[in-house]
Specification:
This protein is an alpha/beta fold and 283 residues long. The protein is built from 10 helices and 11 strands. The chain has helices spanning 8-28, 44-59, 75-86, 106-111, 124-131, 140-151, 171-180, 195-199, 245-248, 262-282; strands at 4-5, 34-40, 63-69, 93-96, 160-164, 184-188, 204-207, 225-228, 232-233, 239-240, 254-255. The structure holds NADPH dihydro-nicotinamide-adenine-dinucleotide phosphate.
Amino acid sequence: MPAKLLDGNLLSRQLRTEIATASALLAAKGTKPGLAVILVGENPASEVYVRNKVKACQDTNIYSELIRLPVTVSEEELLLQISALNDNPKIHGILVQLPLPKQIDSHRVIESIAPMKDVDGFHVANAGALMTGKPLFKPCTPYGCMKMLESIDYPIRGSRAVIVGASNIVGKPMAMLLLQAGATITICNSKTKDIAAHTKEADILVVATGIPKMITANMVKPGAVVIDVGINRLPDGKLCGDVDFDGVKYVAGWISPVPGGVGPMTITMLLQNTLEAANHFHH
Ligand code: NDP
């Protein structure tokens, strides 16, 4: 019996309709939510992400500004741009598309964003607030994964959750959100011995490593919820996740596809965070 699909496109459409309505209402009260996206250089993958984000803003009544800077831009110039956006009352959320060119210290750049406008949730103040259970903004990708679990009414409390991948933007915040929702968590990284021994125990398995199809059917507990965060481009140009979808779908109870799973949810939660930022500003 194949797994049920965690359809990120469908869920995103539902959530974006709600966001569009709430944004229009807030605009009618005088605060139109606004997002600024900064793109440095011409990385093709970043170009696609940024285009999708700006388009999603248009579809949900969110004002957006795309600021393009050349790959040679200095760190000081980028920091000046962010400082201006921090003071701009039309802008409630600021997103700097990563990765940044080598001459720029990403950490310094992220720390220069006002925490109230840090809709990616990467600022150390937001990361710390998440750790203590009171985040201003939840990082968009893990937030999207939590919404997927919520959409199927999954009983997280008391479940075993295994997160493969421990980055600051996906694995670690994902673990915090699941822990706070009452799961017992295991976080695996590249040094973990016998990954399968852990993944086979998981009721909820979230995978974010950047290794195409690393999770195979024999590594998954029958009936588990499998959320695949990975986005990898294969030599033939097709996208695939970190989970071997074609095999794992016969073992899992639920599975998210790539594309059409976590990707659209990440953008949707960026819109949600921008709306929340505008709401804070309005009150
Ligand atoms: P990073 O490269 O920052 O982190 C990868 C993590 O995976 C690290 O913690 C690393 O361990 C761990 N890892 C690497 N190899 C293995 C292995 N063999 N076994 C177990 N763990 C391993 O990646 P990101 O978190 O930024 O992204 C992960 C994937 O998710 C990528 O494919 C990326 O494109 C995708 N992504 C998708 C998003 C979406 O919207 N759907 C958003 C963000 C990312 P260690 O800490 O030891 O180095």
